[in-house]
Write a structure and sequence with these properties.
10 helices, about 70% helix
Amino acid sequence: MLNSVSDPSRRRLSADDRRRQLVGIGLAMIIETPIQDLSLDQVAAEAGISRGLLFHYFPTKTDFYLACISAAGRRILRNTAPDESASGADQVWGMVTAMVEQIERRRSFYLTLVHGSGVADPRVSEVYDSVRSVSTDRVVGALGLAPATRPVVHAWWAYVEDRALSWTAVPTDERTGSLPELVSHCETVLQAVLDVSPDASP
């Protein structure tokens, strides 16, 4: 009896708290498991509820997956947020480094975010667009760029993501170059595209 009272999965939670709990469990699982392979039975068991009750909080499997994807997108933005007390260049360095590290830790999830693999719902692209949009605004703000350069920076992030996905696809001991070298390369590319942009001045 004492165990059931102290076990948070057995306590009666509010609907919002239960949803947050279930999404938190899903987030922990998709670090190692592609989201389309996520077992709702395992999620429910971890939460101490039935699979049927899980569908009370998330009407469909896709709804649950999208809640996890949205939460992961918010987590990516938190983990890649720049240190606003640093110089603009250092902020960009930190953002790119953090983004590559995020992609390395959650590569299968990021592939779902970019390509929508395993979750055929247009709302997946909305999460991805939000991550890219906020990341773009952060770079524009850090470097004091003119708003008109935003499409250039937005496209550059796509390059960074593609390079990170390619780099992390290779086993660590077989990679060409280090993480700092990859980040430095991405910074060089950003400067190059800004140099040929007529709207790069603030």
